[in-house]
Write a structure and sequence with these properties.
Length: 340
């Protein structure tokens, strides 16, 4: 059986990554779209052969409840709309994939998880890397402690933003924050899957060099983490730096992904040499993983709890910055750590 996916929001990620990937998925397929633009509805309908009865807008979206062709709603909207559409999808009885960052706040994550729980539907965050082989190899090296005790891990995720200064990513009301909300969640993710541990404290700093462009949102943030094993973590995220890397140093070797969180191709090496894996669409692997989770009960590799945990860390980083770099304790236990 193949599950039907409805893409909500037909912006660049849906257009250039998700829809093409859904042409290759084995356990799910593109079944419906939700868009505010009638022109896009027409283009998508003819490009992907989607019948009119499977095309929705943001107002009539709730009618998707009666659409038997749709099993999964995939929310690919600006961050401020993630909670609303995740909750509406859950109320319509559909499983949900919500893009990263999961929401604007931890409180929103709670309401989303509650809505999915109440409706008895599954919830995943669009963390595509958990399904791709380079990241899975890092997780295996961590699990097997291949290089002994971890002492230091660093994670950078950043790009230089030069486009329209009015884009939603630079508008706090729509994005909830700048580089940290956009790319920073990848750094946080890298620190955690690259060590296998949730941090127990964080201290952070913010840097701004182009305040005329980044009027409302953070430009560059660095943060230092204390991990329960005693290892030290260091992250950087920015909308004004080109960097994308995970590096971990252990007692008897090291591992590195560079780039670590871009689309394919990724690249990795360890102190023993290069990693060689097939470069398959990450989005295809991710959506098939979630469909298999629903169909066969395989693990949900990026559950809502993981997205919420990352928002707890995001909020702690902003708090630390607001308090002049003060160390903020974190009490996460094993929240969002998926063993696989
Ligand atoms: P985008 O700007 O290209 O698309 C956003 C879509 O939302 C557009 O179709 C737009 O019309 C629609 N929209 C509805 N209401 C809007 C409003 N008030 N303001 C602006 N747009 C509105 O953005 P995108 O790059 O497709 O990102 C969408 C989501 O996907 C974000 O949450 C982003 O973080 C996430 N994303 C994830 C990845 C990944 O690798 N997992 C990659 C890119 C984007």
């Amino acid at each position: 059986k193949s599950l039907g996916v409805a893409l909500v929001g037909l912006g660049s990620y849906s257009t250039y990554q998700l829809a093409p990937a859904l042409q290759d998925t084995e356990y799910c397929h593109l079944a419906a779209v939700v868009t505010g633009t009638p022109e896009k509805a027409r283009t998508w309908s003819s490009r992907y052969n989607i019948g009119e009865e499977h095309i929705y807008n943001y107002e009539n979206f709730d009618a998707i409840k009666d659409d038997e062709g749709v099993d999964i709603v995939y929310v690919v909207l600006p961050n401020s709309m993630h909670a609303e559409f995740t909750i509406r999808a859950a109320k319509a009885g559909k499983h949900v994939i919500c893009e990263k960052p999961m929401a604007m706040s931890v409180a929103e994550c709670d309401t989303m998880m509650e809505a999915c729980e109440q409706a008895g539907v599954k919830l995943a965050v669009g963390y595509r890397l958990h399904s791709e082989p380079f990241t899975k190899e890092v997780k295996r090296l961590v699990r097997d402690k291949t290089y002994g005790k971890l002492r230091y891990i660093s994670a950078d995720a950043a790009y230089i933003s030069r486009g329209n200064p009015d884009q939603w990513r630079l508008n706090r009301e729509l994005s909830g924050g700048g580089a940290l909300m956009n790319m920073g969640v990848y750094s946080i993710q890298s620190i955690i899957y690259g060590s296998g541990e949730n941090p127990i404290s964080v201290s952070a700093q913010e840097f701004s060099t182009r305040p005329e462009y980044f009027k409302q949102t953070d430009e560059t943030i660095t943060a230092q983490f204390e991990l329960p094993s005693g290892a030290v973590g260091q992250m950087m995220t920015s909308h004004n730096v080109r960097a994308n890397r995970l590096y971990a140093s252990c007692d008897s070797g090291w591992y590195e992904l560079d780039p670590a969180s871009t689309y394919i191709p990724l690249a990795g090496r360890t102190s023993d040499g290069p990693m060689n894996f097939e470069q398959e669409s990450q989005q295809k692997l991710q959506m098939d993983d979630f469909a298999k989770h629903i169909l066969e009960g395989t693990p949900n590799v990026a559950p809502g709890e993981m997205g919420k945990r990352d928002m707890v860390i995001v909020e702690a980083i902003y708090k630390s910055i607001a308090e002049g770099g003060k160390t903020i304790p974190l009490d996460l236990g094993n929240m969002g750590i998926v063993k696989r």
